[in-house]
């Protein structure tokens, strides 16, 4: 049975990092990549519906072919998650992967990467985040706290530097 992993978490939480390193076997579908394809940049409020429609179409196509898929966007509200869940074909296992990172840590993470989300936008996301629950239609909920990832970031090549509190995004 194919699995759809739906990432949940505020900007800077570490969703993309986790999805790319831990779910490398699943097909990756991210809203940033689709925004880049359509509008030439990752950060824009343009075309929300269009972006998410394309994500759903690609997700469905991959799942119908039996491939596992990871759908990467903030998915803060039940409504946003419902839109994805509705597009999932019958018989697919659905897992919500909640990358649970505090606001201050998410802002620090954001400062380490090349594109930046305004810090107030990150802070405003936290109260909008509704914890994912099985009753929404998920078979499983995985909550991944920041402490676990920061402490044992297996496969994270720069973890040593990170532990020394250096900026991992700038060391390459
Ligand atoms: N496990 C980790 N160990 C060390 N640094 C990390 C880890 N996870 C994330 N980071 C750092 O945090 C930054 C933000 O992470 P990431 O881009 O994955 O967040 P995101 O949740 O996908 O944000 P957005 O919703 O804005 O796309 C990364 O550039 C990286 O520097
Ligand atoms: Mg991301």
Automatic annotation (TrEMBL):
Gene3D superfamilies xrefs: P-loop containing nucleotide triphosphate hydrolases
Coiled-coil blocks: none
UniProt entry keywords in alphabetical sequence: Kinase, Transferase
InterPro entries linked to this entry: P-loop_ATP/GTP-bd_All4644_prd, P-loop_NTPase
Gene Ontology molecular function terms on file: kinase activity
Top-level taxon in the UniProt lineage: Bacteria
Record's keyword annotation contains Transferase: yes
Keyword Kinase among UniProt keywords: yes
Pfam families: AAA_33
Protein's name in the database: Putative kinase
Native source organism of the sequence: Allofournierella massiliensis
Lineage of producing organism: Bacteria, Bacillati, Bacillota, Clostridia, Eubacteriales
């Amino acid at each position: 049975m194919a699995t759809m992993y739906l990432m949940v978490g505020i900007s800077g939480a570490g969703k993309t990092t986790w999805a790319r390193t831990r779910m490398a076997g699943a097909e990756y579908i991210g809203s940033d990549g689709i925004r880049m394809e359509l509008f030439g940049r990752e950060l824009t409020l343009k075309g929300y519906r269009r972006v998410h429609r394309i994500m759903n179409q690609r997700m469905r196509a991959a799942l119908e072919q039996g491939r596992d898929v990871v759908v990467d966007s903030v998915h803060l509200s039940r409504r946003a998650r419902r839109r994805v869940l509705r597009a999932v074909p019958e018989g697919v296992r659905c897992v919500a992967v909640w990358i649970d990172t505090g606001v201050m840590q998410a802002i620090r993470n954001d400062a380490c990467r090349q594109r930046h989300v305004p810090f107030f936008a990150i802070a405003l996301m936290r109260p909008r985040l509704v914890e994912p629950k099985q009753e929404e239609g998920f078979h499983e909920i995985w909550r991944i706290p920041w402490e676990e990832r920061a402490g044992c970031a297996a496969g994270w090549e720069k973890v040593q530097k990170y532990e020394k509190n250096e900026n991992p995004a700038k060391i390459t």
